[in-house]
């Protein structure tokens, strides 16, 4: 028998990998889109959408931690998208563009740290938005979700 690790995570493996994917989607989705198809602010736009879809996936299965981590990732990616969009699409002074780009890049690195922590099974909360997003996520989990049956045309 292999020795048991005393610090084994109590989160499911699918939650850990899903949260890691959510936090690192800028690297795994946005960067390849930037290099192959789209210019920079538009290539990052699918990333918050993918993380929100992951949050919905976890919410439907009542996996609180995975839903919370995915919603946090979606929020930070929307913030990064806004900063990059401001830096690229507006005509601001050069130093402000550089500052916005530096803050966006720093948040990107911070999200990679979050991806690494969540894959290892540690709980991660972003400094300024983590607690607010957690409250919203917990409220959403308590809400009853209406599901529509597409084939019958009725709602449950």
What does the radius of gyration come to? 18 Å
How many structural domains are formed by the residues? 1
Low-confidence blocks of residues: none
Please trace the helix and strand order, writing H or E for each element. Answer: HHHHHHHEE
Q: What's the pLDDT, averaged over the residues?
A: 88
* Count of DSSP-assigned helices: 7
Termini separation (Å)? Answer: 47 Å
Beta strand %: under 5%
Structural class label:
mainly alpha
Strand order of the largest sheet: 1-2
Portion of residues in helices?
A: 55-70%
Morphology call:
globular
The total count of strands amounts to 2
Main beta-sheet strand count, sense and barrel state: 2 strands, antiparallel
Describe this structure in words.
The protein is an all-alpha fold. It has one domain. Helices cover 69% and strands 3% of the residues. It is globular. The relative contact order is 0.15.
Topology:
Elements: H1 13-23, H2 25-36, H3 40-43, H4 46-60, H5 64-89, H6 94-120, H7 130-142, E1 148-149, E2 154-155
Antiparallel strand pairs: 1-2
List keywords for this structure.
single chain; 156 residues; mainly alpha; two-stranded antiparallel ribbon; 69% helix; globular
Briefly say what this structure is.
By secondary structure, this protein is mostly helical. The chain has one domain. It has 7 helices and 2 strands.
């Amino acid at each position: 028998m292999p020795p048991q690790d005393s610090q084994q995570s109590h989160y499911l493996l699918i939650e850990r990998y899903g949260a890691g994917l959510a936090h690192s989607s800028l690297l795994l989705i946005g960067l390849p889109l930037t290099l192959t198809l789209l210019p920079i602010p538009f290539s990052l736009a699918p990333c918050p959408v993918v993380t929100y879809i992951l949050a919905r996936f976890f919410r439907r299965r009542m996996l609180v931690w995975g839903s919370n981590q995915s919603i946090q990732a979606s929020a930070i990616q929307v913030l990064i998208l806004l900063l990059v969009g401001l830096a690229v699409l507006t005509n601001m002074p050069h130093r402000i563009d550089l500052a916005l780009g530096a803050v966006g890049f720093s948040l990107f690195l911070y999200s990679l740290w979050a991806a690494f922590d969540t894959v290892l099974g540690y709980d991660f909360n972003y400094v300024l938005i983590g607690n607010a997003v957690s409250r919203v996520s917990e409220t959403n989990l308590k809400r009853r979700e209406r599901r529509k049956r597409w084939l019958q045309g009725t709602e449950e």
